[in-house]
Amino acid sequence: MNRKRCNTSPEPSTSRKMQHVPVNCNISDEFIESLLCESEESSADEEDCIQSDCGNSSSEEDKENEEPVLPTPAASYLSESSNDDIPLSSLVSRANSQERETSRQVNEPETVVSSDEPRHKKYFYGKRRCMKWSAEGPSRTTRTPAHNIVVPSTATDFPPDSSSSQLFGLLISESIKNKIISFTNQRLEMTREKYKRRNKPELKNIDALELDAFIGLLIFSAVFKSNDEDINALFATDGTGRDIFRAVMSKERFAMILLSLRFDDASTRDQRKQTDVATAISDIFSEFIANCQKYYKIEETTTIDEMLVSFRGRCRWKKYMPNKPCKYGLEIKCLTDSATGYLYNAYLYTGKNSDGNGLTEEEKKLLVPTQCVLRLAKPIMRTNRNITADNYFSSIEVCLELKKNGLTYVGTLKKNKREIPPEFLDKKREVHSTMYGFTKELTLLSYVPKKKKTVQMISSMHHEESIDSTKSIPEIISFYNATKGGVDSLDEKCAKYTCARRSRRWPLVIFFRILDVAAANTFIISNYNSTKRMEFMKDLGRRLVKITTGSNQQSTEILKFETLKNCYMCFKQKRRRTHYGCTVCGQPVCLQCSKPTCNNCR
Predict the structure, then answer these.
(1) Which DSSP string do the residues of 459-474 spell out, in sequence order?
(2) HEC string for 27-56
(3) Same domain, 93 and 181
(4) CB 588 within 8 A of CB 237
(5) 458 within some domain
(6) Spatial contact of 71 and 65, defined as CB atoms under 8 Å apart
């Protein structure tokens, strides 16, 4: 018997054919009996019929035992039925489907929200649900997290009244100077073999005093902004040159030292180059970095970035970086103090796989930027310090690896990272709007600084939605802006007062950058607030050259020839022959035509 709408059937039927109900149906017997009773009752209008179907036939106790969501779909099926006949099996099947759908929604642990309101979601997911972010930050107490309590530095203290040259000598140590002197003299010995007059004063060996004087002149060339000036102009005697240069050494001697500077043993270089392509300067560079770490107490925040040293010569690991002012050069990966720009750790980038030198086999399997960060962060691990870097180094991987080693990380993220939820990349959001995603250890921030632009930030240091009241921007962005410029600050110091002269020898270019960084670091560890940097550089150069000023470092050795030669002064008159020669010009001169002088009058 077919059931029709209540308002079209004044007299309901008194008989009904029983339909077969599937055995595997989950509908209770009481619910089926209530449906049968409802079909036999009369109803005056549609409202009474619906109210009757909603459960008036059942008792209050049955309502409490029943599923609260089941009568509603059944009633809706009865009230919305068309003039066509509806079989009981179809009715029960549709009710059973609605019951399963309702049961699935009740058991679902998460609330599904429309994509039109992403900020009200409880969770966000990255691409292909690779990572889950919570919209609410983890509950924390008012105490400072343990990973933000910095361990004090154990750097060696130096006397507070140390002069600029003494502090400079801590970084360019005696060990470094001795290596340079030894290898430079080795080169000078090879150069002397090419000359007939091997006793020329500009060909003599170099010592520690003369090396200090040479470095002092390079410092003065940085002060005078004359590092690119021709040597002939620096040593000019027509009043346009620099008196300090002529007072320290001759032009020929300065040029010879500049040409002969060496930093490794040339006889074993080819063998060492098989494992280290930068072996010509790597030992000096590594020792200098160790000295920088030994005498400085680094602050709580550090910065990692690259530094490009201008170079146009031939080098297998020369790089092209169009965003840098010099475009071509040698790359140095640096870790500096964010507040002062003090260079604390660095290494030379010598090509593929050079970032993983010194790391374990497991660490070498990580991303290349992650290897770079771990290598630079070795000296400060387990100190709870923070590292700030740009989007080249930033990833979820590097944050978690640093977290294992007792460090925090703050940086910008590239938009192609698959861990970023699509909602965070929406450019149609309001200007200055923010979205946060949290995990137990990380915080993801999406900020809209201007129209149609989003900035993605990652931090393992911040764990709440906080705003910098002074700048009205998120605290993570404010912290990043305050700590991101450590390496840029050092690069600016080196560019302002640089002693780098033009050269096609890349080891010499790296040595010039070592001197620039040493001067900048010395200025930082000294009481640099009490004086200007230019005055500091002048004082440093003056102290390095003061021992040799006015002496020209002339040789005190007596020049002798193996065979007798005619005196060039009395050759035409008396034809004297002599074994001696002038120590200045090298010409043969007899004792009658020369004058003995003491060391104070030379």
Answers:
(1) ESS--S--EETTTTEE
(2) CCHHHHHHHHHHHHCCCCCHHHHHHHHHHH
(3) no
(4) no
(5) no
(6) no
Same domain, 538 and 561: no
Q: Are 251 and 176 part of one and the same domain?
A: yes
Out of 107, 124, 153, pick the residue that ends a domain: 107
Q: Which token pair is 91?
A: 């009715």
The two structure tokens encoding residue 544: 């390095």
Residues 584, 507 within the same domain: no
Domain presence at residue 44: yes
Q: What are the φ/ψ torsions at residue 389 (nearest 5 degrees)?
A: -150, 170
Boundary of a domain, candidates 59, 91, 107: 107
Q: What value does the CA radius of gyration of the chain take, rounded to a whole number of Å?
A: 42
Q: Which tokens sit at 108?
A: 């679902």
Burial of 352 (0-12, 13-18, 19+ CB in 10 A): exposed
**Angle (CA) 539 545 550, round 5°:** 125
Mean pLDDT of each 10-residue bin along the chain, 602 residues long: 43 43 50 54 44 43 44 41 47 52 47 41 85 82 68 72 90 96 96 85 92 96 93 91 91 95 94 93 96 92 96 93 92 96 96 91 94 96 94 95 95 94 91 93 94 94 87 93 94 94 95 97 82 90 75 56 81 76 79 69 52
Residue 8 lies in a domain: no
Asked whether residue 275 is assigned to any structural domain, the reply reads no
Nearest Cα to Cα of residue 411 among 442, 366, 453: 442
Is 421 buried (19+), middle (13-18) or exposed (0-12) by CB count in 10 A?
Answer: buried
Domain that holds residue 206: 172-268+497-545
Location of structure tokens 């001795």 = 178
Do 41 and 97 lie in one domain? The reply is yes
The closest alpha carbon to 444, from 123, 174, 215, 143, belongs to 123
Structural domain count, the chain: 3
Whether the model clears a pTM of 0.70, i.e. scores above it, the answer is: yes
Looking at the structure, do residues 582 and 539 belong to the same domain, yes or no? no
